[in-house]
Structure prediction request, 1485 residues.
Amino acid sequence: PLTRGGVSSMARAAVFVLGLLLVSAAVAVPLQTGSAEVAFLQEGTEAGAQPELNVGNNGHDVVLRGSHSLTPKTDYIDKNLRFSMDGVLTKWSFFCKGNGYLHLQVWRRATSHDFRDYELVGENIVTAKDGYNLVPVVPSQQIAFQAGDVVGWRQGDPDHTGASALLVFDEGAGGDVWANGAPLPCKCGEHKRFDEALPQRTYSISGTFRYFPDVKIKGLVMDRDLRKLGHNIVGRKGADAEDLTRISFVDTSLKFDSPGVVEAWFKHGGREGTITFQVWRQVHNDEFLLVGENMFVTHQSVELFEVPRGDRIAFQVGDMIGWRYESEPGLLSFDEIEETLGQPNVRWTAPDTDRPLVGKIAFFPESHSDSRSYSIQAFYRDAAGVVNAFHSRCKVDTDTIAGHDVTFTITSHDMLDRPQVKGGKPWLVRVSKDDDPQFKQWGRVIDVGDGTYVASFTLYKTGQYHVGVSVYDEPAEGSPFALTVHPAPPSLRTTYCTGPRVHDIVQDHWSVFQIVVRDEFDNLSPIDPARLSLLVRSRTGSHWGVQIVEGGTSFAVYDAAYVVDRTGTFNMTVLMNDQPLEESPYTLQVRPDVTDPSKSFLLSKQRIVIAGELTTYKVQAVNFTDTPRIRGLDRVTLSLVGPENLEATTVDHHDGTYSLSWTATVTGVYNATVLVNSEGIVDGVFSVRVDPAALDVASCVVEAPSHLVLTAGVPHNITVLPRDRFHNLRPVEASTFDAVVTRMDTDRQVDNVTQFVLPDSRVQLTFFPVKATRHKFEVILAKTEERLPEGPLTLTVEPGSLSVKDSVAFGWGLTTSVAGYPASFSVEQRDHWGNNITAAAYEYLDRPWSRFGEVWDVVLYGPDKFNRTLQLGDKKNGFYNGVYTVTRTGVYHLHISMHGVALSGSPFAIHVHPADASVTTSIIVGQGAHHAIQDIPSTFTIQARDAYNNIIERCCSDYSFQLVRDHELVTHSQARWVGTAHGVDGLYEVSYVASSVGTYQAHVLLRGEPLKGSPFDVEVVPDVTHPEHSEATFEDHVSAGTGATVGIRSFNKTSEPRLRGGDDWVVVLSNPNVEDPVTADLTNFKNGTYTATYVPFRAGEYTMTIRLDGREIQGGPFTVTVGPGPTSPEQSSVRTPVVDPVDGQVEAGTLAEFVIKAKDAYGNDRLQGGDTFEASVLRPDGEALTDVAPVDEGDGTFYVRFVPSQAGEYSIKLALDGTPLSGSPFSLSVKAAALDLQNTELVGTCAHTAFEDKPCKLLMRARDHLGNVRAVRPARWLVSVAVEQGESASDNCPTTIVPATEDNTEFTVTYTCSSLGTASAHIGLAGSDEEFVQEIQVKAVLTDPTRTLLRPASSETLAMVTKGSTKTFTIEARDTEGEKRTRGGDTFTVDLDGINGVSEHVSGNVIDMEDGTYMVMFAVNHVGQYTCSVRLVREGIPTPVRDTPFTVTSNPEEEEEEQEQEPPKPPEPTPQPIQMKRVQCCMRA
Prediction:
């Protein structure tokens, strides 16, 4: 089926016929040529459901017949089983005798002159069983046939050796079976001649098939202008390989011979997938430009794809057909064909090429090894035959009148903008209305037949239209065209007046109606209002009234008004152009103007009014014609019944209206009744609600006594009655009233009042008292602050209940205290609102104070599980006092509570600080209190404590220090006093310097009083370095060649650091493997510190000694490890691969390994990896190898490994961070591996193809398994070539082998085969059973007609012949190289046709001499000139031989020449039967 919603051809034909009937029934005019599209469209869509493809059968009845026979190796065709249209075979049915194989075939008449030649289109080889068989064919093997193809068969298995099933048949008239006895089966595309007639047989065979749809162009059956380019769509066998996916193909043999447009694609293939059909243009050699492409999804073996018009590809002369497999390969099947142009016809892009884009150039560097015939066809139309809508011409008028025909001419132009000279194009004219999307009208198109078309249509409704002119869905130039349809002239028949035909009107009242003017098609048609008039007359014929006609507010609509001043019956005639309308006259019934209460109504009706306000209603009196009255004198009343009964005051305005006024002061709902002349009017009974008037402050009431006693924290409600001036309770919002509350003790206002509206409209003011005191309470109007008449009120607030959480404690004893000193605090009792509960708060109450004696629980917790309960003293005024004394410093917690409820802030954190320092408890610590070094500062520490042994963290500077020797105070020159420093955690540092050696007494005083233990003795000793107390710092791991340092700090006997230099420290590093030890250079900083510097060069483990006067420093001797320095590319070593000691080479295919040993600049081996060595390997051909990066072993060793595959010199470059290693680049010589016979290379055409009896040379190269050329001694080669003649027989071809190069790597093999077929070249080596076999096709030498010669017999000339005598000459066949053929087998034809008045055709008799020459004999029966054509026929295609055709002159016989001298005689008539036989023979030839 057609893709993208296409429909089969027969289905379209059926719909077409149905559409013709429908259109013929709906349209009065006959259907014109070119409008067939209308028959297929209903509301713009194709009519009818999409049917399946037609299914048919081609064959005889499959029944059991009486005969069967087997003629081995024979093909049959039945010319009666001929297909009538294109299609595909889906199943076979047949009746056979026996079990075996059966070839079911389809044949096609060949293109040769002989009617007996047929070409095999395709075949299905099936396994048949005895009896009836029904064999479905899988889609990939279904045979595609064309109209005229016939059914055939061949009995026998594919190998022609097994059992065969026999088709049964009946002898008798009606059969037309022909046979061919050729022994070999025929391949698809090959020819056979069926010359054995079996005309009386009817075989039991039938094929079921599906017809292909005809190519459709927009619903029309394809016309004869469509052309086809491509190969026949037949059941081909070949399929492209899996690796040919996403590759574009181009068939250089499929070239367009004229410009045009591709409209459909036809293909055959055995797979499903996405295929893209393409058109390519060759730019230069391998460069092709992609002109366009169409992508389709294929689902079955044979498909036809119609290209939408917008996607059709326009091409030029010479463009070629191509395709591309998008997802799956092999979507097109193919057959291999014989090369005719010397090059394969199908080329493809490289596999790694990106998808080509339209308008871009792609490269096609590759081609198939053989020419191929793919199952692909393109249906196209020449540019001259393709109608182009844009270039076509037509013009449509912009204005027309409703009902008038619109006619215009369409001139078709082709793609080259040339006028077409014939019709047949489906031009369509479609009219649409701008304001009506549903409107659609098709125009009539008449095909004139000369490329022009006359289109017409008629529109009856006014408005804006657009006319679309298109062909094949493409709009013509300027389409769509705008068209305005104007109305026709006004019509008396369709013009009418609004309203009833009998007008019931009132005396003296104006009556208005409208006149709507329309044309004959009911379109509004404007007219000059002066042409419209009214004529009113009484029944007696008198004219009456006044008439007014003027333009209305709408298009073609006019207002008319009139008035009659007396009662009675009148006739009114409406005139247009002084002619009455068709529906005139109208009857006027004029009545007097009397009020009708049932139609009178209230003009205004207020349902909600305000108390005390005047309310007025207005009544409109209406007469019986629903016309408002214009006179008064009616009696109109209004009664209201409710909380009070009221009557309204009536005022007559004497214009048909009345005013009713009333006022109510009591709120509520009233029932109102309006009467006119004692009768009810429309909606005259209704209810009215009277709402209160505005709020009146003077009328509002506060519901409360003048004096109240309240409790703090307890809300109190006071109610206000909001009323209007009539004392009606008026609903208000809660915020309408507000309260002003003032504390009388401070005269400050408080904002503790909220408002709330009660359901009965009263406003409740809620006061929330907080402070225990007297308050003044006043109610005011919120907006105006106007006070209500009652007030102000006095509110007395007493304290609330005691609240422990809200009571407070205060005093410095709650936060801090000093050890040994009393600390105090107080507690105040309060209620929840912070009111002090005291008697003073009740001075204005009449009852006594009775809230004394509450019990508070007070507990003090401290360090070391301190726990003490305290008693509070009651001051009888709401206050309580507490006192406590503690001696230990630290943080204490005071808990105050009542009945388990903690006081706010409880527990309180109290910090107890120490008291003043005490001489009895302060202590002295530190080495400086007993020992000192001469001229070295010495220190000791004083720990300050108070009398309770508490450490004093921070204290005053009341300490002093004295140094006494021999009961005399040492002067400052003998002892330098530093004094006390700031204390941290109670410690005070004392520093001093003694300049003399001896014993001193040290005195420490606090405020002049000695501390406990003072004075004490201090021994001063001299300052000398002691190595056992001195220290050294150094790095235990250093690098070779890098300077290292050792730091030395000298300490004296008391482990105090020395402050002077002068010590001769000796630092030495020794290693048993290093001959010379390393001695460090010492630097004296003269402050007791030293630095020793050394530089090691040999890696290893060293022993380092640091000595002073032969004594080792503390912790010595030490161990220092010297590691290698940074890697040096110059010192690093490389170990090359092991080579063959004989030739110094390595064999290809073996591992080559370079080992790098990293070293530093001093030759020390690197013991760890991490170096960035680089390696690059270049093959002999200059190509760099990949994946040769050095492998780090992590111990300073790196491996570079690769396997050389190419023989020759390799270059290996090794470097470290870009610096080459010593010896780099390295060279490695690689030789070829062992000979691999299976990798032997045969070069040249003779490696695959040879021609009979012609020496053929090929080049042979010996290679190893990696493809390297290897030398072989010529004597070792064993080469033979033989043509297979059967299972065991063969024809040996003489073969020689000689070296082609001096190094014995290439050899020339020459062989000559005299038999056709497949030859096998066997290549081996002496002493080895292995051999390499190559198949070679030995083909026959083809005769080249352009080199073939014609040889006349003896000395005769070819151009002369004698009438009636036999003429002979020889055809000497020659091949493409001009050499004489030595074999026969060619088919030559010789034809002579008379010219210049001679009407005779003679076919020469050609005899094959089987030595490359052919004898030709012929005779002519007339005198005159003939054209002699000699042709070589190959595969049914005749080709003229060189120097032909040529002219042959026929001369008369000798007797005739003598008779010419005699008087002329009438010629003897030729016998009619003989002449008829000759004519029939000539006609057959």
